[in-house]
Each structure stands twice: as structure tokens, then as C-alpha cells.
Amino acid sequence: MVDEEQQEAAQRLLRSVLGEEFRGGGAEFVDAADLDAESTFWHRLLGGSSTRTESHHFLRADGFPAIVIQRAPGHVPPAWPQDGSQQMHVDITTDDLTSADSAAIRSGARRLRPVDDADLATHQGGRVYASPAGHPFCLRPA
User: What is the pTM assigned to this prediction?
Assistant: First the structure.
């Protein structure tokens, strides 16, 4: 995991990369042992632009806070839902769940639950996945 000193350094780096954009928007930090695989996944899934350093990749995508993927060599993926700890969880709403599901799988996500957990008629539920680093996220009908 990332220690407090590394987290502070990441915050300084984030401000220098994103400048004023960061001051009001905040950011989601994602730990990953394989920095390239995790940042490529989120970039493929959400689009936007990325800035890369040796220890951090910064993703900016319309409609989302900045996403910072930080190298964490000792990162252990969560075993959610088995152990109850998700470490983080992102919900993404979409008008086209079928296309978003295909895009997630093509980008490197793996399903954690069956695809029929979402009820498109009532816009309830969602489809649950894990990123390459094992972080869970949901696609939900808008």
C-alpha cells in the first residue's frame, strides 16, 4: 500500500499536473501494482486524456473527477464480495448498458456477478465488474 509521504507527494504532483482543475474537483486515487494495465483500462473505459509519470498516471474524462492511478507494488486486490472490503467502488451510469458492458469487457474488466443483475425496464440494479487491479465497479442503467 501507499504510505502517507507517497500520498502527499501524489497530491503535490496532481496539483502540478492538473493545476486549477484539481483545486475544485478532487480526485479518485487507485492503487495498482501494474500501473500501465490499470491506467490503460480506465482510459479505454472512460475516454478522456491522460498524463503519465513514472509513479502516477492522471486521467481526465468528462463527467468524472480526476482519476489518479498510483504505483503500489504491494497492492493486493480486494476479494470482494468474499471478504467485504472493496477498497473503492465506482458506479458509472449509462444509457446503453449492453454497449457499456461490451466496452468494459474489451477494456479488460472481468464480471463479478451475472449480467442479468440489472433491470433495464425499471433502471434498477447494475452489472458488477473488477478492473485489472481488482477494484470493483458497477455499470448502472441511467
Answer: 0.68
